[in-house]
Amino acid sequence: MTDDCIFCQIVAGDIPSRTVYEDETVFAFLDVNPLAPGHTLVIPKEHHERLNDTPADVATDVYAALHELVPSVEAAVDAPASTVAFNNGEVAGQEVPHVHGHIVPRFEGDGGGPIHSLFGSQPDLADDELDRIAADIEAER
Ligand code: AMP
Ligand code: ZN
Q1: Would you write out the chain's pLDDT as a tens digit for each of its 141 residues?
Q2: Residue 100: which residues within 8 A CB-CB, separation 6 or more?
Q3: Which residue from 27, 43, 83, 134 has the least number of CB within 10 angstroms?
Q4: Is residue 95 lining ligand 1, measured as CB closer than 6 Å?
Q5: Domains of the chain
Q6: How far apart are CA 127 and CA 124, in angstroms?
Q7: CA of 18 relative to ligand 2 center, distance in Å
């Protein structure tokens, strides 16, 4: 628990939330400022800032809860699809520094786009650059 973290305070029950799921390690609740009806946040109960800081077992639990909740959220609001995403780090738009997955139900003609629409343009990467990047990622593991 980190005292100044609003999501830790939600887990502790110090800030109210519309809880939709809870188990030993994971908590999920409706987003207070929803992008769509049913917009849900899925978080580990332990405070970890980003996916990068989250221990593997906790990340596995968060993913399992997402996997379980996505169909329930879609069914509850009769949505045919959902966007499931993490803003992972401040530069990527993460405002609450307690790792959380968004489940945003999607509807025909809702005016939203795919994740690709977040980016105005795409870099033009040559094949050898792509080969190098792939090798670098593999080497970092
Ligand atoms: P992000 O930009 O990925 O950090 O998303 C943070 C999300 O937390 C936003 O969608 C906010 O609407 C949501 N949020 C902030 N405070 C609360 C709260 N007290 N209860 C529920 N959702 C919240
Ligand atoms: Zn926290």
Answers
A1: 788 999 999 999 999 999 999 999 999 999 999 999 999 999 999 999 999 999 999 999 999 999 999 999 999 999 999 999 999 999 999 999 999 999 999 999 999 999 999 998 999 999 999 999 999 999 999
A2: 7, 41, 42, 43, 86
A3: 134
A4: yes
A5: 6-140 (3.30.428.10)
A6: 10
A7: 17
